[in-house]
Amino acid sequence: MQLIDNYQRRFKYLRLSITENCNFQCQYCLPEGASNSVTNKPHFLSLSEIDRVVSTFAQLGVEKIRITGGEPTLRKDFTDILSLIGCHQQIKTVALTTNGFRLLRDVEAWKLAGLNNLNVSVDSLSPATFKFITGQDRLSVILAGLDKAIAVGIEKVKVNTVLMKGLNDNLADYLSWLKTHPIELRFIELMETGQGSQIFNQYHLSGQILQQQLVQQGWQLATKEETSGPAQVYSHPDYYGKIGLIMPYSRDFCRSCNRLRISAKGKFHFCLFGEQGIELRDLLQSDSQQDELKTRIFNGLKIKPERHFLDEHRIGITQTLSAIGG
Ligand code: SAM
Ligand code: SF4
User: Fold this and answer.
1) Which ligand is nearest the CA of 320, by number?
2) How many domains does the chain have?
3) CA of 106 to the centre of ligand 1 (A)
4) CB 50 within 8 A of CB 44
5) Average pLDDT of 213-221?
6) Residue 127 pLDDT > 70, yes or no?
C-alpha cells in the first residue's frame, strides 16, 4: 500500500506536530507568544496516539517522520517520543525541527534515542537581529548547540532562516560561517498566514534575489535527493556548508511536494495552506481501529489539492505555522 495522490505524487514523509506551545515570539509566527494564540487549553496527541499515527503511516510506506510544533522540545516526554518513533523499523529517518533552545543540553540524549536529522531555526547570525526577530537573546547558546549536534554525530544538520527583507538578507553575513560548518543553511521565503499579513507585506523577499547572487559567486545547483522535497540546494568547492532555497511562491513549487502533515491535535493536513484538515483522533484510541484509519487517510489523500494559492493571497485556514508545524 502506498500513499499516492491524484497528481502522482508519492508520500514517504510525514511532518508530525506534537504541540502548539512555544517559548519564542518569532515576529512572523507567534509575535505575542504562544499563550495568546493557544485558546481553550488544548491537549495534544498522547504517546499512545502518536504511536498509532506512526505505526499506521509506516505501514502505508512513510519512511521519514519530522517532529515539529510549536516548539516540540518543550514537551516533557519529548525524548520518549523520539524513542517511540525510532522503534518502528520502517522509519529510517527520525527528524526534528526546533528553535534550538534545548540543543546544547539534550542533543546527545536525543541522538541516543534515535534522532538522525535535525533542522534548527536560526534567523540571523547577529545576536541583535536574532533577538529582534525571535524575541530571545539566545543566539550564542543555540550556535553552541549546533556545534554539539555535529560533534555528537547527528547525520544531517540544517539551519532554517526565514528570509526577511532588510533584516537577514545579506548573503555575506553567512559565508564565513559556511566555510567551516558542514551545515545546509536553508533560506525559507516568508509565507503569508492569517495572522501575519502585515509582517508579510513589510518583509517578504523573493529567494530569487539570493539565487542570482549565489550563481554569480560560483555556487552550483546540487542534484536532489529523493526526500529533500522542494528545496533547491547549492554547493561551492570552497565551502563545507551548502545553501538551500525554499521558494514557495515560485512556479511549480508544489509539483515536488512530498510531505503530509498531522497537527498536534490529530488532524490530517495535505497542504500548509489548505482549507481543511481531516479529523483522525477518534480513530487513534485503539489498535483495532487501524483499518478504518487507513481508509480515512486514503480517502483524504484523494482531495489533496494540486497546489496552494499563496500567490493569490489565498492562505487557507492557517493562522500561524505554529499550529501545523511549518
Ligand atoms: N519551533 C520550531 C522552529 O521554529 O524551528 C518548529 C516549528 S516552526 C513553525 C517550523 C518552521 O517554520 C521554522 O523553521 C520557522 O522558521 C518556519 N516558519 C514559521 N512561520 C513561518 C512563515 N510565516 N513563513 C515561513 N516560515 C515560517
Ligand atoms: Fe516558536 Fe518556531 Fe514559531 Fe518561532 S517559528 S515562534 S520558535 S514555533
Assistant:
1) 1
2) 1
3) 21
4) no
5) 96
6) yes
Q: From the CA of 288, how far away is ligand 1's center (Å)?
A: 35
At 38, which amino acid appears? Answer: V
The DSSP element (H or E) to which 2 belongs, if any, is none
Q: Please say if the pLDDT value at position 227 is more than 60.
A: no
Q: Which of 107-116, 215-224, 265-274 has the lowest mean pLDDT?
A: 265-274
Q: Which positions ≥6 away from 84 have C-beta within 8 Å?
A: 47, 50, 51, 54
pLDDT digits (tens, 9 = 90+) for 244-260: 999 887 767 777 788 89
Which residues lie below 8 Å from residue 263, measured CB to CB, with a gap of 6+?
A: 17, 269, 277, 323, 324, 325
Which ligand approaches the C-alpha of residue 190 most closely? 1
pLDDT tens figures, 25-82: 999 999 988 864 445 556 999 999 999 999 999 999 999 999 999 999 999 999 999 9
> Does 299 fall in a domain?
yes
Q: Atom 4, ligand 2: which residue's CA is nearest?
A: 26
Closest CA to 324 of 97, 96, 85, 15: 15
Task: Report which ligand 2 atom has the smallest distance to the Cα of 320.
Answer: 3
User: Ligand 2: which residue has its CA nearest to atom 8?
Assistant: 70
Measured from the Cα of 29, ligand 2's closest atom is: 3
Burial zone of 136 (CB within 10 Å; 0-12 exposed, 13-18 middle, 19+ buried): middle
| CATH code, domain carrying 47 | 3.20.20.70
- Nearest bound ligand to the CA of residue 17: 1
Task: Return the C-alpha cell found at 152.
Answer: 555528537
Q: How far, in Å, from the CA of 296 to the mean position of ligand 2?
A: 30
CA of 326 to the centre of ligand 1 (A): 5
Range(s) of the domain holding residue 177:
13-312
* Residue 2 belongs to some domain of the structure: no
**Region of poorest pLDDT, from 50-64, 143-157, 229-243, 247-261:** 247-261
